[in-house]
Amino acid sequence: MTDRRGVIAKRAEDLLPDVPYVRGWMHARRAAGALAEQLTALGLDSDFPGLTADVNVRGDGLVRLGTIRPEAAALVAELVITGLAEKARSEARPQAPTDAVSKEPSAA
Fold it and tell me: How distant, in Å, are the alpha carbons of 95, 96, 104, 107 from that of 99?
């Protein structure tokens, strides 16, 4: 499988020498674990029983969501939209200067 950017190659079934499969798989495992934690916190872990880490033939990590219900996909899309909207709002808010410390003149 290949996406429009050519990022995702065929899944690694036969491993080749000199390809860092473990590094890619560990990266995918950490990402899948982080996603699983958030899904569990939202009570959605049972909607993603096929969530696993994998690796492609080039050693790139993959996170497989597995087969999910349309309602679960719609909910994830809604969560992404909400997160992006919140990010845009927080970036639009003026930030208070953090390095400026107001000091009163000391009485000598």
Answer: 12, 9, 16, 24
Cα 11 to Cα 21: distance, rounded to the nearest angstrom: 11
**Residue-level pLDDT at 39:** 92
Distance CA 101, CA 52 (A): 48
Segments of the chain scoring below 50 in pLDDT: 1, 108
**Contact predicate 42/76, CB 8 Å:** no
The reported pLDDT for the residue numbered 107 is 55
55 phi and psi angles, rounded to 5 deg: -145, 150
Between the alpha carbon of residue 45 and those of residues 53, 62, 65, 74, the distances in Å are 15, 19, 11, 15
